[in-house]
Design goal:
It comes from Streptomyces xanthochromogenes. The chain is of the alpha/beta class and about 230 residues long. The chain contains 8 helices and 9 strands. The longest helix is centred in the N-terminal third of the chain and has 16 residues.
């Protein structure tokens, strides 16, 4: 059963070594993510699953390793304690999640990773979330994902007038633990607006359906024309 969730953005720039001179611009987001991960720890889960978008879906065992070498820095992270040398490298969204956990000193609870293909059908996302919630008596999720990358003229996807409205609906749903609203997000529109978080958020909706959790939005911003949201469900 899902007992807690944290929603965080997943840009590599969240890692200060990657951000370099731009690091202070995301300090508020980092602080909010730290608070959200702290709530996960306080929920005392039997299992924590880090969920994030990727080109291809896949599962990752505790100890799987990720790297930010592709962004010019020699920073390696590990998903929880232990070592899983045979596991494939973590996709960047899960690597950012692993970095957040390392930063928080996460140690005791078993940790796994679930990469969700960005184009995965909403029904399949919801079903994946329901399966995650059944994995243990007390399941917590760290859900990584960004809003639209089309919020401004200088955004990665350029300006799309629909982006702000989509992000407003998504952030309200994440902040109120509104699983029905998350399930109803338009996957085609999300693709057009370059919303990396749509599929992971719908996994969260599937996991949280019927759990009667309350939500709270801790942070919302779009510093680079990309929607970043931090929220907690408990």
């Amino acid at each position: 059963m899902l007992v807690a969730a944290a929603v965080c953005p997943c840009p590599p720039l969240l890692v200060p070594d990657v951000a370099a001179g731009a690091a202070p611009e995301l300090d508020a987001a980092r602080d909010a993510c730290a608070d959200a991960v702290g709530l996960l720890a306080a929920s005392r889960p039997d299992l924590l699953v880090v969920v994030g978008p990727a080109e291809q879906g896949g599962t990752f065992r505790q100890g799987a390793v990720g790297s930010f070498a592709g962004y010019g820095v020699d920073v390696r992270v590990r998903l929880g304690r232990g070592e899983s040398a045979a596991a494939p490298s973590l996709p960047v969204s899960l690597a950012v999640g692993a970095w957040l956990l390392e930063r928080a000193g996460w140690a005791d609870t078993p940790v796994e990773g679930l990469a969700v293909a960005e184009g995965l059908d909403p029904k399949a996302c919801i079903a994946a979330g329901e399966e995650l919630a059944s994995r243990a008596d007390r399941v917590a999720l760290l859900v990584m994902g960004d809003g639209s990358a089309c919020r401004t003229l200088k955004a990665p996807g350029y300006l799309d007038e629909r982006a702000a409205g989509f992000d407003e609906i998504a952030s309200a749903a994440l902040g109120s633990a509104d699983t029905a609203a998350l399930m109803g997000l338009d996957d085609r529109l999300a693709h057009e607006l370059k919303v990396a978080g749509r599929a992971p958020w719908q996994v969260l909706a599937g996991a949280g359906s019927g759990a009667a959790l309350a939500g709270r939005l801790l942070h919302e911003d779009a510093p680079y024309g990309v929607g970043y949201f931090v929220g907690v469900w408990s």
